[in-house]
């Protein structure tokens, strides 16, 4: 039973490799969340469009993305897109898949955030003859953003925890590195446990960060100008 | 390969996927109720254990938990087959999210219900099972439904520990036939159909459980 005891020397050997792979994980999460927020806003605004056909089709697109596994979506994008002449690197595919998947979730957060603005605010904006863009920019979004922060943050943390799935398309993130180390040395205990601890650590820090952002955000809203 | 053959191979995978869901879901529900109630009512050391379980399984990714159970536990002399590892990992993972659903639903029952049951001299267990739980259960159904769909989606991860589920069959078919477009398209539709069936049953269940509670306006 070679792996029964924790080997500290081996732990210190593999830690630098796992830490350098953490950069790839964090990069994928960062780019993925930017893309997801953009996609979420697009979906949310299209769900409010005047055309009924557009609204229902976006509803089903979001529903479809949300109820199929991320792993299959990653495979789909990685293997099927090249058939249409769009070949992407594992990282780009991963960012695209994470962005699309969590964009669908975030669109619901944004939609309910926008819907939670009182009707009187919309009516006042109409009465003051503000254009649609001005209404969103100056009246609705400044008030809607703060209540959206906790849910958005939770989804970004959830996205972070899904990045190991990108190892399936050979992206060298933490779990993939741990698996390679494990199969080379035939010791899985230390690398997998280290990766688990890293994820726990990062998500606790991120959750604290989101709480701080929410706390610092002015309750009465802020100007986007 | 013909389209019909592809579908029939994928159907075999879908059956494995459904089997895993059928086994992991009861485990998740048991864990959710067990640790949810411990978290709420048990004395301190048990409560700490529940919090450690919840935070550990919610704070790390499902795939790492799966790998840990499948690759690391054998070194401790606990050898389990891939299927058991999959059911245990997914059940514990989804169950840890479920504890918060149970806790939230129980805490959302109005305080007057507790006070009234104390005033009527109910015992603690009567209060929980006869007054609080029937009302809390209805509140739990929609979030539990979402978790069930999360579970269906999470089963795709078991393909990475070589279980022949829907995703695994799709990946190996795609590697041999190169008809990636049809295969992954069909797989996405399969998962979507499984999830929508679950949604349908959950709605029925919710309707059934909320009978007689005077919710959602006038009953038709």
UniProtKB/TrEMBL annotation, chain A:
Which Pfam families does the record match to this protein?
Answer: BPD_transp_1
Where does this chain mainly localize? Answer: membrane
Taxonomically, the superkingdom here is Bacteria
Per the record, membrane topology reads: Multi-pass membrane protein
Where does the record place the ABC transmembrane type-1 domain? Answer: 22-210
The residues that cross the membrane are: 20-46, 58-81, 192-211
What UniProt keywords apply to this chain's record, in alphabetical order? Answer: Amino-acid transport, Cell membrane, Membrane, Transmembrane, Transmembrane helix, Transport
Q: Where in the cell is it found?
A: Cell inner membrane; Cell membrane
Extract the InterPro entries matched here. AA_ABC_transptr_permease_3TM (IPR010065), ArtM/GltK/GlnP/TcyL/YhdX-like (IPR043429), Ectoine_EhuD (IPR014341), MetI-like (IPR000515), MetI-like_sf (IPR035906)
User: What NCBIfam families would the database entry show?
Assistant: ectoine_ehuD (TIGR03003), HEQRo_perm_3TM (TIGR01726)
Tell me which family the UniProt entry assigns to this protein: Belongs to the binding-protein-dependent transport system permease family. HisMQ subfamily.
Q: By what name is this protein known?
A: Ectoine/hydroxyectoine ABC transporter permease subunit EhuD
* UniProt organism field: Marinomonas vulgaris
- Taxonomically, what lineage is the organism? Bacteria, Pseudomonadati, Pseudomonadota, Gammaproteobacteria, Oceanospirillales
Q: Which gene encodes it?
A: ehuD
UniProtKB/TrEMBL annotation, chain B:
Q: Does the keyword Zinc-finger belong to this entry? A: no
The main location class comes to: membrane
Alphabetized InterPro entries for the sequence? AA_ABC_transptr_permease_3TM, ArtM/GltK/GlnP/TcyL/YhdX-like, Ectoine_EhuC, MetI-like, MetI-like_sf
List the SUPFAM superfamilies: MetI-like
Membrane topology category: Multi-pass membrane protein
Subcellular location(s) per record: Cell inner membrane; Cell membrane
Domain ABC transmembrane type-1: where? 14-199
Keywords attached to this Swiss-Prot or TrEMBL record, sorted alphabetically, are: Amino-acid transport, Cell membrane, Membrane, Transmembrane, Transmembrane helix, Transport
Which CDD domains does this one have? TM_PBP2
Transmembrane stretches, by residue range?
Answer: 6-38, 75-94, 183-202
Q: Which family does it belong to?
A: Belongs to the binding-protein-dependent transport system permease family. HisMQ subfamily.
- Give the protein's recorded name: Ectoine/hydroxyectoine ABC transporter permease subunit EhuC
Organism of origin is: Marinomonas vulgaris
Lineage, uppermost ranks: Bacteria, Pseudomonadati, Pseudomonadota, Gammaproteobacteria, Oceanospirillales
């Amino acid at each position: 039973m070679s792996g029964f005891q924790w080997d500290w020397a081996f732990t210190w050997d593999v830690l630098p490799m796992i830490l350098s792979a953490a950069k790839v994980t964090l990069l994928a999460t960062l780019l993925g969340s930017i893309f997801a927020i953009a996609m979420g806003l697009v979906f949310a605004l299209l769900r409010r469009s005047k055309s009924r056909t557009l609204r229902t089709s976006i509803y089903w697109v979001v529903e479809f993305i949300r109820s199929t596994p991320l792993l299959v979506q990653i495979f789909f994008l990685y293997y099927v897109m090249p058939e249409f002449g769009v070949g992407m690197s594992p990282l780009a595919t991963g960012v695209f898949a994470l962005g699309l998947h969590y964009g669908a979730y975030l669109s619901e957060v944004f939609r309910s955030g926008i819907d939670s603005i009182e009707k009187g605010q919309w009516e006042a904006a109409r009465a003051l003859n503000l254009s649609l863009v001005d209404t969103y920019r100056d009246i609705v979004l400044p008030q809607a953003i703060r209540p959206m922060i906790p849910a958005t943050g939770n989804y970004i943390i959830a996205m972070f925890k899904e990045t190991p799935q990108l190892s399936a398309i050979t992206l060298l993130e933490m779990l993939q590195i741990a698996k390679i180390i494990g199969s080379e040395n035939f010791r899985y205990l230390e690398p997998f446990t280290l990766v688990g601890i890293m994820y726990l650590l990062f998500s606790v820090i991120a959750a604290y960060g989101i709480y701080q952002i929410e706390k610092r955000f002015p309750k009465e809203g802020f100007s986007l100008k | 390969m013909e389209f019909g053959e592809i579908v029939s191979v994928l159907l075999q995978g879908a059956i494995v996927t459904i089997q895993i869901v059928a086994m992991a879901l009861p485990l998740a529900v048991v864990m959710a109720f067990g640790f949810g109630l411990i978290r709420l009512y048990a004395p301190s050391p048990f409560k700490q254990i529940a919090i450690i379980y919840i935070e550990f399984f919610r704070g790390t990714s499902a795939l790492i938990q799966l790998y840990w159970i499948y690759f690391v536990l054998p070194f401790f002399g606990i050898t389990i087959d891939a299927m058991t590892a999959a059911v245990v990992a997914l059940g514990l993972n989804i169950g840890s999210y479920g504890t918060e659903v149970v806790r939230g639903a129980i805490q959302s029952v109005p305080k007057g219900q507790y006070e009234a049951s104390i005033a009527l001299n109910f015992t603690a267990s009567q209060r929980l099972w006869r007054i609080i739980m029937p009302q809390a259960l209805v509140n739990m159904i929609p979030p539990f439904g979402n978790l069930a769909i999360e579970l269906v989606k999470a089963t795709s991860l078991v393909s990475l520990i070589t279980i022949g589920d829907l995703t695994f069959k799709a990946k190996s078919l795609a590697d041999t036939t190169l008809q990636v477009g049809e295969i992954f398209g069909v797989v996405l539709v399969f998962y979507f159909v499984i999830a929508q069936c679950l949604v349908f049953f959950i709605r029925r269940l919710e309707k059934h459980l909320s009978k007689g509670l005077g919710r959602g306006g006038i009953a038709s």
